[in-house]
Amino acid sequence: MIRSILLVVLLLVVLLLIIFAVLKIKSSQIKDYYDTENGYRRLISAESDEQSRLALFARDIAVINADTRDLSDTLTSEAGFLTKCAGGNALVKKEAMARMNPASTTKIMTALCAIKYGNPEDQVTITEDALITEAGASLAYVEPGQTYTLQQLLYGLLLPSGNDAANAIAIHIGGSIEGFVDLMNKEAADIGASDTHFSNPHGMTAEDHYTTAYDLYLIMNEAVKYKEFTNVCCKDDYNVEYLNPDGTYGSRLWKNTNKYILKDRELPEGLSVLAGKTGTTYAAGHCLVLAVKNEKEDTYIGVILGSDSTGSLYDNMDYIISGVE
Predict the structure, then answer these.
(1) Which one in 71, 133, 212, 270 has a CA-CA gap of 20 to 30 Å to 50?
(2) 320 with 304: CB under 8 angstroms?
(3) CB neighbours (10 Å) of residue 82?
(4) Residue 3 above 60 pLDDT?
(5) Nearest-angstrom CA–CA distance, 188 and 276
(6) What is d(CA 21, CA 11) in angstroms, rounded to the nearest whole number?
(7) CB atoms within 10 A of CB 89
(8) pTM, to two decimals
(9) CA distances from 134 to 131, 154, 163, 204, 225 (A)
(10) Active site residue ranges
């Protein structure tokens, strides 16, 4: 009798342990890491069903392995990464998996979420909550009471890198900046960018706001699937007309910050820009995520983070993409 009771108790304990383990797994986020010896990326989504997990494993993404060229002793930037969009072995790396401050390259994810979850024709009236008062912030100079379309705000986000445009988009799509940031983090998890966490939609330095060169590749790789993104990124400038609170119309010229697009910096021969986003803060240094095409229409994504000047930023990017064939 005692033996039977002990057996029942033991079975109950085992059952409870199993239930606890299952609940713990379901509550976890995507775990994402490399098996560098075998050269493959493991993606395990505990919140996904079996079909979703299989889709993650089948995703055509780049992997870092022994064939990836290590430029740790060559690049002067803190991190760098280059790969072909079609997947396979990554071509170039330097601290590609190190968590770093992304500055305004954050806005790639902001744009991606705006495109996926918003309507470009939506009328967006700027609120006080969208204003940025920090010194040195990059701005589109949108003002409370002015009305823009969501499409127009994408230009303000990606060309002059307007932090105020980022906030306006966030409030419109997410209901609040905090709600939109939750959406950004969910989107990052869904595409496997598990070493990324956003605290705001614009990239100003903040606690718990980080990503990696590899994760920025993943985010850009997703964004370039949308023509709404690449069409905006490739504009050298955009003349926006907006509605003032008094019913009159105003206009403003927004210019791109990407020197390759402005032709202030020549690309290596045979390459053209598909999309790109710069980012600069004191904490992050000078950053650039760039998608380029070669003459065969193959797409490559290069990431440079933490350069000490604008000149060295483009020198480093030139160096990693110059080997694209």
Answers:
(1) 212
(2) yes
(3) 29
(4) no
(5) 18
(6) 15
(7) 15
(8) 0.84
(9) 9, 21, 10, 9, 33
(10) 104, 107, 161
